[in-house]
TrEMBL record:
This is Helix-turn-helix domain-containing protein. Belongs to the CdaR family. InterPro entries: CdaR-like_regulators, CdaR_GGDEF, PucR_C-HTH_dom, PucR_C-HTH_sf. Residues 100-218 form the CdaR GGDEF-like domain.
């Protein structure tokens, strides 16, 4: 083709350029390195040049430029298509993995392609930031690159899901999720990470993922401190909330009288939360609420008067604290049925 174009002085036809693009696509599909292919084109140009008079050199290089440009266009197009297909397959796998919507046997087979061995136990960490994560976002890409650079090929999967960043790692490698949580917190300047417990088998990933999501949701409702929340440390809360009707009865019977307070139950309920969150240390609770110790003491006495439960008395403290936790769990008073 090159020799004919040089002999006649013509340009490459549309069909010839399209043929170059198709050859580029075939080369990309075959996995041939582009550098070697460019070298082959230049070698063909050099051979043609040696067999042609010097007067056609300028025309020949113009023809070579268009031929190589069409070839590379086809090569890059094939690579882009392959990347999109790989991303689509990865996204579909992640959806099936985290929602358990696929046959578990087939899911395990597909997992090997992405570096996971679902016969082992896995744990999942879920990070959420002030802004949603998305595929290709610099923050998400930077965290993924940092984790993979630190731990290499250790059967780790990092992906985005519904605006959050998810990390799946072997259950016997907690240091991976710890490092992921550290990077995610630093990158989002105040984000939060929930970490589920390790569970075996393909369904174990779904279970751990749901625990991590539950830890994040619970942290929001319970105003839990700390950037990293381990589901194993929060198991008491689902137990308390398992019988919602019983919890509502406890909250209403114990804290319902606080509605009689001036300004409603909110300030006194906040006082209970602060008092218990600080280990029943009045000075710390007062500082947390920006109150004087005298004002805090007055509030505690008011709670005692209204509820007939003394926050400072160990015999009453457990009932009050359980009711205060329950109030957060069910969103009392706004979320109660009483």
């Amino acid at each position: 083709m090159l020799a004919d174009a040089c002999t006649t002085g013509r340009r490459l036809t549309r069909d010839e350029l399209e043929d170059r693009r198709r050859e580029g696509e075939r080369a990309a599909a075959a996995g041939v390195r582009l550098r070697l292919l460019i070298r082959a084109h230049l070698a063909a140009a050099h051979e043609t040049q040696t067999q042609s008079p010097p007067s056609v050199a300028a025309h020949m290089f113009a023809v070579v430029e268009r031929a190589v440009d069409a070839f590379v266009e086809g090569y890059e197009r094939a690579q882009s298509n392959a990347v999109r297909q790989e991303e689509a397959a990865r996204r579909e796998f992640i959806d099936d993995l985290l929602y358990g919507r696929s046959d578990l046997g087939k899911l395990a087979e597909r997992a090997a392609r992405f570096g996971l061995r679902l016969s082992q136990a896995h744990a999942v960490a879920v990070a959420e930031g002030r802004e949603p994560y998305g595929d290709g976002y610099p923050v998400a890409r930077g965290i993924e690159e940092a984790v993979l650079a630190r731990f290499g090929n250790r059967h780790i999967l990092v992906a985005t899901k519904e605006g959050r960043l998810v990390c799946v790692a072997s259950g016997d490698q907690p240091e991976v999720l710890t490092y992921f949580a550290k990077r995610a917190y630093a990158a989002t300047d105040g984000g939060r990470v929930g970490i589920g417990r390790p569970h075996p088998g393909p369904g174990g990933v779904v279970h751990s993922y749901e625990e991590a999501l539950g830890a994040l949701e619970l942290a929001g409702r319970m105003a839990l401190d700390g950037p990293v929340l381990h589901a194993v440390d929060l198991l008491v809360y689902p137990v308390l909330g398992r019988d919602r009707q019983a919890m509502e009865d406890l909250v209403e019977s114990t804290l319902g009288p606080l509605r009689q307070a001036r300004g409603g139950p909110g300030p006194l309920l906040d006082t209970l939360h602060a008092y218990f969150d600080t280990g029943c240390v009045a000075t710390e609770a007062a500082r947390l609420l920006s109150l004087s110790v005298r004002a805090l003491t007055y509030r505690l006495q008011r709670i005692h008067t209204l509820t007939r439960h003394d926050p400072a008395d160990p015999r009453h403290r457990y009932t009050l604290q359980t009711a205060a936790i329950g109030a957060r769990l069910i969103g009392w008073p706004a979320g109660s049925s009483g």
